[in-house]
Amino acid sequence: MRNRFVTLTATLLLISRAGIAQTPQAPQTPSAAQPPPLPATGTVDVGGLFTTIDGDEARFERYRDTRDGLFSSFSLNRQGASYLFDANATHVGYRDQRYKASFIGRNVDFNFGWVSLPLNFSYLTRTPFATNGNALTLDDNAQRAVQGPTFAPNDGTAVGVPCAPGAPPAACGNPTQAAQAKANRSIYNTIATPFDLQYRRDTAAFGVTYEATKAIDVDAKFTSVKREGQQPWGASFAFNNAVELPQPIDQRTNDASIGVSWANPTAMFRVGWDGSWFHNQNESLVWDNPIQISDFSNGLLPPLGPYDPSGYSNGNGPAQGREALAPSNLMNVVSATGLYKVPGRTTINGTAQLTDQTQDAQLIPWTINSMINNSPAVIAAFPHLARLPRPTAEAEAKGVNALLNLTSRPVRLVNFTVRYRYNTRDVQTPIFDATEYVRFDAVPEEIEEGFSPQFNTTRHILDANVAFTPAHAGTIRVGYGHEAVARHGRGFSDVGENIFRASYDAYSNRYVSVRASFDAGRRRGEGFVEAESGNDEAEPVVGPGGTQPTLRYYDEADRDRKRGSLLFTVMPQDSVDVYVQFAGGKDEYLPDSSVPVSRPGELFGLHDSTVRSWNVGANFHPTSVVAVGANYGRDKYGSLQLSRNANPPPDPTWTDPSRDWTLDNDDATSNFTVFVDLLRAIRNTDIRFGYDYSDSDNAFVHGGPRIAALASIGQFIPLPNVSNTWHRATADVQYFFTSRAGVGLGYYFEKLDVSDFNTIDTNGPVGFTPATGDPRIDWLGALTMGYGNRPYTGHSVYARVLYRF
Amino acid sequence: MVLRWNLVNGGLALVVLSLQFVLAGGGTPVSAGSGQPPASQTGEYAGEATCLGCHEDKAYKGTAHSLALKERTPAANHGCESCHGPGKAHAESGDPALIKRFTRTGQTPAEGSDTCTSCHNRASHALWDGSQHFQRNVGCMTCHSIHSPKGTPQLVARTQQELCSKCHRNVTNKQYRFNHMPVREGGLVCTSCHNVHGSTNVRLLRAGTTIDESCTSCHADKRGPYLWEHAPVSESCITCHDPHGSNNDRMLVSKLPFLCQRCHVTSRHPPTVYEGYLLQNSSNANKIYGRACTGCHQMVHGSNAPSGKALLR
Description:
The complex is a heterodimer.
Chain A: H1 2-14, H2 17-21, E1 41-55, H3 57-61, E2 69-79, E3 84-90, E4 98-104, E5 108-122, E6 126-127, E7 130-132, E8 135-137, H4 140-147, H5 175-183, H6 187-191, E9 193-194, E10 197-211, E11 216-234, E12 242-264, E13 267-280, E14 284-288, H7 311-314, E15 320-324, E16 329-342, E17 346-359, H8 370-373, H9 376-381, E18 395-411, E19 414-427, E20 436-439, E21 443-446, E22 457-468, E23 475-487, E24 494-506, E25 512-526, E26 558-573, E27 576-590, E28 605-623, E29 626-644, E30 660-682, E31 685-703, H10 705-712, E32 722-736, E33 741-755, E34 760-761, E35 764-765, E36 782-783, E37 792-804
Parallel strand pairs in A: 8-14, 12-36
Antiparallel strand pairs in A: 1-2, 1-37, 2-3, 3-4, 4-5, 5-10, 6-9, 7-8, 10-11, 11-12, 12-13, 13-16, 14-15, 16-17, 17-18, 18-19, 19-22, 20-21, 22-23, 23-24, 24-25, 25-26, 26-27, 27-28, 28-29, 29-30, 30-31, 31-32, 32-33, 33-37, 34-35
Chain B: H1 2-23, H2 48-54, H3 80-84, H4 88-93, H5 109-117, H6 132-135, H7 140-143, H8 160-172, H9 190-193, H10 211-215, H11 231-235, H12 258-261, H13 276-281
């Protein structure tokens, strides 16, 4: 509150007359006809904010700060003969405060902005981890009680993570074990302390444009973003225990740009440079293992020890884990943009950019596990782990990007455009050899394909359209596009897509407007990369990355796409519009007939996805002081994917179609919005009212022979639908006693009902069991913070005094 | 592949040939805003005072256009007639056909935009011609009002969301989804990510030249490049995320673990059927609830750890 008051005072001083008096004076006017400066105008909006919230308070506040306190916002605008000044401050002193100022002068334009944006995850979260810089530690006594005096399974007297070693059960695979695990609560549940899981992003931006001559501008911009706080993060020890903890965030990104542009009415050219520096104070994270206080050792020699070769699975792992977080990095871009207009209403414009992204962070060691790092026997067995191939990442990606547009209206009836785009991403990072590495800080292993990939991509996109505009009959446009993508390191080496499109726009009739479009795309790949089978004549045993050989990655797979949209608006009067909007499409992912392993019925991955979106609405503004509008929307999404639950070859399950299963995911969402604005419709009074509603029902329906098999042995339970219903109502009434002074009363209401099976409440997954709103941090196989999706109802009231000048 | 390259080369040839065509004065020359002046721009000027004598409600005080000492503004040049063209003949006769009018029926959107882009042709407006909105006959006046704006900057609607929803309601509705960018809270607006006037990027994205470059202009922690990259991440964020809003956590296009299973059809745990029985009776439950796959594969955007091949560290 004190900070808010200080900031408020400072802001009031800034907009005081003394402050105004120091605004730049207009230079001498070149002509006597210049109008006198307009008086300063602005608003002062000061009062109180009062909020009550039931349920998940952080979710209600998500990107806002609604704490009780002094509410204040200000604005100031002044225009002189040679300048225009505008400034405003919003929600002064709060975690979501914003400030903006701009000055447009004779030769210089300047702008400044400050935005604080919180992201509030949860105030219901608890964690047993204590944070010290980038290290998160657990209570030693608790770890000791879980591990016990020896490394034998279930030696400890306390449960660390349900279904993990410690007090029994050490694993869960049936209802009896699971019931025992649910009943024996984690020792960390009793010592976990509540905390607010949130971070804030503060952005300061400065920009200036100097008009050096009538034709030449110099522009510069600097933006600095500070992100600080915590976010939910995974830090796991594999199958035995997954850990969720608050990742400390302390990051800053500085962006700078400068450019020089020259323009006249027929041409423009700009050269510029952009630089971006991202600095992460925490480039690595170290955290304690909730079930081990010391690194496991069985006293044996490789390959049997001293580590447990199954340690990532059975829990006989390290005392700590270490992972690399987002590395500090740098990006530089040099660009040139040009525009040239030639007779015949023809314009050529385009840009070319050279991009260089680099990252050279210090690499963390192979592992933090002392039983591996400090064991000469292990290093002898895995000599590659003696040292890192290089100390830093030396990562670099270069980009060359170009865009060229040609558009022409040689006659009023015809318009054509041709566009060519080129993008290449060339990874320069030296290949990193990790053919010997350490899995989950638990087990050293060898992997033949342990070399870092270089995902290079080159795209050529050509797009050509011709539009015909018969007099007042609308515009018919037909077009063709082709995208050619060459990839390195993916499933297909070459992918091409042909796109045909048509659209019709009627926009000049005063009663009706129509905008309709349809496009169809056909994407096909070549050069499918197959894993070696050892026999060129035989079908490959596995596909790229050890996948099923007929898997298609949906971002590059053969695809047929159809999309369309329609916007139909009727305007019977100037004050009324009624509209219908439709947008929809379907993507079908296909087997590639050129790939020899493609067989009917053996296509895995995403098969298709569809979307249908309808909106109907109307707006009515009978007078300049009354506006009313409403919209109803209905969106439906659907997708079908196919998989096979199998073990790797030569296990016969690998090719057993009875192990196949499908997933239908259907999401239906309804929206409704309505607003009413009565601005001085009632004497001296402004009234604004709004209501927004959203309802979603998300279904996950499994099918296929594998599901039938699981159901027959009582090991399949359908997932409940994930649903949410959200309401928001806002009202704001302002009454002015005089032309300048008034009072305002605002009301904000939000309510969310949500049911999501991945949220674990006291009794278990929500949807299977009733929601309690009380998070559980020790469900099967994991130790979490209790972060999830929970309902809330919140009310905020703003009571304030208004002053306009 | 040869065929595709031929198509691309053919397209480039089309560009060059078209250029030669227009440079040679092909077609019927219709004057551009910068070339030969249109008919309405010939003639004598009446002066702004004359205009305001009849059109008092069309003043433009309080806007950058009115800064008389800024030499590129209308106020520093011919006032109203900087945009509407010389108006003496119109003023004397009252004939609306003798003045350039930016109305729905007066000009095509492209013709109206030509006037604006004769000045607004650099910075964010440089790539207007040929842009997606340009091609669909959206003109400057479709979204902006010089004389009676309702919102900033000079918009015909109160807010950007209200304006953009006139055509893109299916997109703007997504701000009401359970997981969303801070648009409905006022933290971002459409133009935070999009440059509706034409951009160097696809989908009218404001920053960069690829979707990834646009997203990482704010999410620089995801920029890398990493020692170990995740192939779809290095190509396009929207393979997995819907930036306009989603009912799935982290604005994913599908729920975890099912999203990952769209591609990771290998062996053992990736293609396991994750359903209610496991969620309630197995340690494999930890692959369904909470962070699901990213509970272990937390470095899903890329890893810088030497042991990070599977994005685990």
